[in-house]
Design a protein that fits this description.
The complex is a heterodimer of chains A (about 625) and B (about 550). Chain A is mainly alpha-helical and about 625 residues long. Helix content of chain A is about 75%, strand content about 5%. Chain A has a two-stranded antiparallel ribbon. In chain A, a hairpin with a 2-residue loop joins strand 1 and strand 2. In chain A, helix 3 runs antiparallel to helix 19. In chain B, helix 2 packs antiparallel against helix 3 and helix 6 runs antiparallel to helix 7. The longest helix of chain B has about 35 residues. Classes of the chains: A mainly alpha (about 625), B mainly alpha (about 550). Chains A and B meet through helix 23 and helix 24 of A and helix 7, helix 9, helix 10 and helix 12 of B.
Chain lengths: ~625, ~550
């Protein structure tokens, strides 16, 4: 069997799982979660087989294509269902199915007491299938199908506890904000079709340099809009914090490790377009830099552990987008950070879930404290994830983030300095808020209280089915970065697809690393002074203006409300007014006019044969006269 | 007068008789018509010799077999290539056997067959004195309300003559679109018109209204025929011949040999223009184009509903066929004269039909005005003067005739104590009470309105496309506007059926025999098939779209 024939099976396995679990009904309630986990793992196994196959080939021949069928066979508009497995999509396949399978396993324990667990696994499998379709598609239209599919899965899973109004609202919000981005993608596809006459990857990238820069910039900006929606980048970032209403495994898989990185994938995959549109690239880097600071600042102020992590996710994806905007200097590092982030952020979320599991679903960190003795495994795995994300030397985040900061400086010129500085500041803030999370959760005095029913939480370690995935992810958080970086393994792996250039950094690598270390120490130090040395107040202090703004997500929702919602309402109201007065007036007037005319004409039909005969005679006379007249003129 | 020539006061010596050439008749190619005429004659014999009890069955059997056999003959001729390569003019130049002829004859025969089913329906009216009755008067000659009528009803008489009448009408309609000279055209016109006048008068219920309709139809029809005949005379004066081919030659200026007796008038354009206009007027009367449409609502309403359905479908097919042949074969040379005039007729027909329909309150009158509007749409295709114009009209006619027969068949089902409940207010809430019947009627209405996935859309699209390509874009715009107006009243009926509360004393829906069910079922099936997969039939119409000269 040829290896490329396996590609469709990657998608088919979780798709089958989704179908079986969602159609199967209550009969499968007892085994549904294992079916879901098994099929997810099956997909992972196929992924590993394909990976081994790719490794056995020359780096230039590591692209496998599988053509399933022609989806839209119209002359001049051909959409194929074709899959492309190359180094880039392979990386994603392993991340998605690997981390996905671990999280399936974790969910078996986490969702144990939920009576809709089967459905949950069905949705998770659906997500995997859609996400794999997204990264394996060989044209933008098929990618769009996957793009919408993950959006749907995300909507279903954020709102999984639909009995909570907050969850239902959050799901709706995520969906609506994502629609804005999706519109960008669909416009980009249309522009592509108008420009190149196709939307298949191969021809589009091959002809990208031939198109005018203006068109490419437009396509690039639309793709960026799509990426902003899916990856929660400014200005479409507002949904991610609320998305934490979903079950924690969902936050780990979809809203940390995989789906939210789809925007990064889109930009890196479309590298050929962005490379030829420097203006669009500049906007990408700006979006990335703004978001990495935005997310980091928001993360500093949140007391909800999941929302703090969500801010962090936003910020880390900001790093990736920044790197992706740097062009060939940064593509590889964007993806590398994406993978390492997949490990440590998923691990952190699973750790947070484990803490919540032991704390009666409490999410307020001010009500934690001193948990390290109660849940040692969670503490250690979370701690390793923490060290990885702040970039502690030797751990994953150190390698990948450091590379991005270097690449930002290597952009050169003023832009390089500004972007590099932003990235450095971001690193310091990251160190601050993650240390804050760590200290508030696991150190200090215990601060939890009995709830209103008098139940005091009894923190305990989670069952093995949950801790094992956390341990595996912790191992990844520790070693992945080093493994990728030693001998530039990851660089050589991806380079044939994304290309690479060193750029010309004004600073030496050592200088950048030194600066990053200084930032790290400053961030950790401030956090320690504020939360390690002093007791954490159980009720949040009022805080500075910035803190209060950051707690409100830097006023993102207020901004959206005032500008978009109010503006939209005004627009709608005026449109309704126009509709009621002008349009309805015209329509009703026309209808009334025809009705009146009808009533009048109807009177001609008086039932007398003689009148009918006269009408015929008149008609005949007219007919003859008109015919003669036509000849005359 | 010389004495030698006189043998007696009473006789005179004839010139030596030169041999009259025996007419050459291609019986095979005329077989569809001949079968139907023959069956009609058999039907008369049945009336004369078969016992009253068995007549109904004998008539239905003879008619059904004849129509099927004639249709088979049409198919055989078409399969033999008479529609395309072997198309030619038969019967000494009187009948054209070509694509349009065969296509329209096939359509008329199928429409006739479905109409036959509705004619033969005997389960809708309650039994009269233990006898099953159909839609037709017990004894046509009995004065409505008289004792004779009561006696006839009591005796269980039925007017089985409608079946031979139907066959005669079908026979005339078969000849009408294939007539290749003006006299044949006129004879065919009368052959199918007279039975229709008669059948209009035969309603079992509301007999006075039915007879009034028949008289109006007859008077106005005769009036229109007079115009046609006069026009024929003028054209003869113009061309010295009634043959289509000869007239066309004269119009084109390729005069063969002028009859010395007509030397003064031959080629006189005034005769051509007036004559052509008057012949066309007669045909426009038959298709129900404005301003020759005024008989339509009265007759459609008064005639027995099965007859209305047959008339609305088959007459339109036959008359448009004849109109197409006249304009495309005889008068293409003067198309710059007739096209603008037909533009005007098409516009006022489309708009007039659609607008007046808005305020109708009787379902049969509503459908009558709808048929007027449709005549306008078809005229738009006629005006295209292209091969696509012909084939689009052929397709439209086929699609339209099935929808029409089906729709009128549904009308026969909705009844109250007075017979059919045709007032629209009585149809309120029908969808709640009889969802299936209402749904079927809704399908027909949507097809009339030209909603996609029904044959009406495919037909309208083809016609408008041909018209637009033929340079009649403004006509298409008006056509679309008229369609929008027309959609209003079609949809209004649907809304009435499905979204109004049923009235307590509302009508009941009778359960018909398999005959009417078959007519309605075939109507729905054809409507949907032509709507969903029209391509095969469009191709068929396209192949059939060439006239033989």
């Amino acid at each position: 069997m040829n290896a490329e024939n396996l590609i469709a099976l990657l998608i088919a396995a979780p798709l089958l799982g989704a179908a079986v679990l969602l159609v199967g009904g209550r009969r499968l309630d007892g085994v549904g979660h294992w079916i879901g986990t098994l099929l997810s793992t099956t997909s992972f196994v196929f992924g590993v087989i394909l990976f081994a196959d790719l490794l056995g080939k020359n780096p230039e021949h590591r692209t496998l294509m599988q053509h399933l069928y022609t989806w839209v066979p119209v002359a001049g508009f051909q959409a194929d269902v074709t899959f492309r497995l190359d180094q880039l999509s392979m990386t994603f396949v392993l991340l998605i199915t690997g981390v996905g399978s671990l999280i399936h396993l974790y969910s078996v324990g986490y969702m144990e007491h939920d009576e809709r667990r089967r459905r949950f696994f069905g949705y998770l499998n659906l997500f995997l299938a859609a996400m794999l379709l997204l990264v394996l598609a060989d044209n933008y239209l098929l990618l769009y199908v996957g793009w919408e599919g993950v959006g749907l899965a995300s909507y279903l899973l954020i709102g999984f506890w639909q009995h909570k109004p907050s969850a239902a609202t959050a799901a709706k919000k995520a969906f609506i904000v994502n629609r804005v981005g999706d519109m960008g993608l669909s416009i980009a596809i249309m522009l592509m079709f108008a420009t190149f006459g196709t939307f298949a990857f191969g021809p589009v990238f091959a002809h990208a340099t031939g198109a005018s820069e203006g068109k490419l910039t437009a396509i690039g900006l639309m793709l960026l809009l799509a990426a902003c929606g899916k990856s929660a980048q400014v200005p479409l970032q507002s949904w991610l914090g609320d998305a934490m209403e979903g079950p924690t495994p969902v936050s780990a898989l979809i809203h940390a490790a995989t789906m939210v990185t789809a925007g990064v994938y889109l930009i890196v995959r479309s590298g050929a377009i962005f490379n030829a549109a420097p203006d669009a690239q500049l906007v990408v880097t700006v979006v990335g830099a703004v978001t990495l600071l935005f997310g980091a600042i928001v993360g500093c102020a949140k007391d909800d552990i999941k929302k703090a992590l969500a801010g962090s996710t936003m910020s880390q994806i900001g790093y990736m987008i920044l790197a992706a905007g740097l062009g060939p200097i940064g593509y590889v590092f964007a993806i590398m950070h994406l993978v390492t982030h997949g490990f440590f952020k998923a691990g952190l979320f699973l750790g947070a879930g484990s803490v919540m599991h032991g704390m009666n679903d409490e999410v307020d960190m001010r009500k934690y404290g001193g948990l390290r003795t109660y849940m040692p495994v969670t503490f250690i795995t979370f701690g390793l994830g923490y060290l990885a994300i702040i970039g502690f030397p030797g751990l994953s985040g150190f390698f990948s983030k450091d590379k991005i900061i270097e690449a930002a400086f290597a952009k050169g010129g003023t832009e390089g300095w500004i972007l590099g500085t932003c990235a450095l500041v971001g690193a310091a803030i990251t160190a601050f808020y993650m240390t804050r999370v760590m200290l508030m959760t696991f150190f200090g005095e215990k601060r939890w209280q009995p709830d209103e029913h008098g139940h005091e939480p009894h923190p305990h370690e989670s069952p093995k089915v949950m801790t094992i995935p956390m341990i595996v992810l912790a191992v990844g958080s520790v070693f992945a970065g080093g493994f990728f970086s030693i001998g530039d393994r990851f660089l050589h792996w991806l380079e044939p697809i994304t290309g690479h250039s060193e750029g010309n950094s004004p600073l030496s690598a050592a200088a950048v690393t030194g600066a990053t270390m200084v930032c790290l120490i400053i961030g950790v130090g401030i956090a320690y002074l504020q939360y390690g040395r002093r007791p954490v107040p159980a009720v949040a202090p009022r805080g500075s203006l910035l803190t209060r703004a950051a707690r409100r997500d830097l006023l993102q929702d207020d901004f959206n409300h005032v500008v978009l919602v109010r503006g939209g309402e005004h627009l709608t109201r005026s449109l309704v007014y126009v509709d009621h007065t002008l349009v309805d007036g015209v329509v009703n007037g026309t209808a009334a006019g025809f009705g009146g005319l009808s009533g009048r004409l109807r009177k001609l039909q008086n039932g007398y044969a003689r009148s009918y005969a006269v009408s015929m005679f008149g008609g005949a006379a007219l007919l003859v006269a008109a015919t003669l007249l036509m000849r005359a003129v | 007068m010389s004495a030698t020539a006189v043998h007696s006061l009473w006789t005179t010596a004839a010139e030596p008789i030169s041999k009259i050439p025996a007419p050459k008749i291609e019986y095979g190619q005329l077989s569809p018509t001949l079968i139907v005429v023959g069956a009609a004659l058999v039907g008369i014999l049945v009336e004369a010799f078969v016992p009253r009890k068995s007549r109904y069955y004998a008539q239905v059997f003879v008619s059904a077999v004849a129509l099927c056999a004639a249709f088979a003959a049409v198919v055989a001729l078409a399969a033999d290539g008479y529609g395309t390569t072997k198309a030619h003019i038969a019967a000494m130049g009187a009948i054209a056997v070509d694509g349009p002829s065969l296509f329209l004859q096939g359509t008329i025969l199928l429409a006739g067959l479905l109409a036959l089913f509705t004619f033969a329906e005997r389960r809708l009216d309650p039994e009269a004195h233990g006898n099953r009755v159909d839609s037709f008067a017990a004894q046509a000659a009995a004065v409505p309300g008289s004792d004779t009528e009561k006696a006839a009803v009591k005796a269980g008489f039925t007017t089985t003559e409608v079946f031979p009448l139907l066959l005669f009408a079908v026979a005339g309609m078969l000849v009408f679109p294939s007539a290749n000279d003006l006299l044949t055209l006129f004879v065919a016109l009368e052959v199918f018109s007279l039975p229709l006048y008669l059948m209009c008068a035969l309603a079992r219920r509301k007999r006075l209204m039915s007879q009034e309709a028949a008289v109006k139809y007859f008077l106005l029809g005769a009036f229109a025929s007079a115009f046609t005949l006069f026009g024929i005379a003028l054209l003869y004066g113009y061309a010295g011949s009634v043959s289509y081919a000869t007239i066309a030659q004269v119009v084109d200026g390729r005069v063969a040999n002028i009859d010395p007796a007509l030397a003064n008038t031959t080629g006189n354009d005034a005769l051509l223009l007036i004559g052509a206009a008057m012949v066309v007027m007669g045909l426009l009367f038959k298709v129900g184009a404005v301003p020759f449409h005024m008989w339509t609502p009265d007759v459609y309403q008064g005639a027995p509903t099965p007859v209305t359905g047959f008339m609305a479908a088959a007459t339109k097919v036959a008359a448009f066929g004849a109109l197409l042949r006249l304009l495309y074969v005889v008068l293409p040379g003067m198309r710059w004269d007739w096209r603008p005039v037909m533009w005007g007729v098409a516009i006022i027909t489309m708009l007039g039909g659609a607008i007046v329909a808005i305020t109708q309150t009787d379902i049969k009158r509503l459908l009558a005005y709808s048929s007027i509007a449709h005549a306008g749409f078809i005229l738009a295709g006629v005006i295209a003067t292209s091969k696509d114009g012909v084939s689009s009209v052929l397709f439209y006619l086929a699609a339209y005739s099935f929808v029409t027969i089906g729709a009128f068949a549904v009308v026969t089902l909705v009844r109250d104590a007075g017979g059919e409940a045709t007032h629209l207010s009585k149809w309120a809430g029908l969808g709640r009470r009889s969802p299936l019947v209402a749904a079927v009627f809704a399908v027909f209405l949507l097809a009339f309105a030209g909603i996609p996935l029904t044959s009406g859309f495919a037909g309208k699209f083809a016609v408008f496309k041909a018209a637009a390509e033929g340079g009649a874009a403004p006509l298409v715009v008006i056509g679309v506007i008229s369609s929008a107006i027309a959609a209003f009243f079609y949809i209004r009926v649907i809304v009435l059926m499905f979204f109004s509360e049923p009235k307590p004393e509302g009508p009941t829906v009778a359960v018909p025999s398999p005959l009417t069910m078959a007519a309605i079922g075939v109507g729905v099936a054809v409507t949907l098939v032509l709507g969903v997969a029209p391509q095969y039939f469009l191709n068929l119409a396209s192949q059939a779209g060439v006239f033989v000269r």
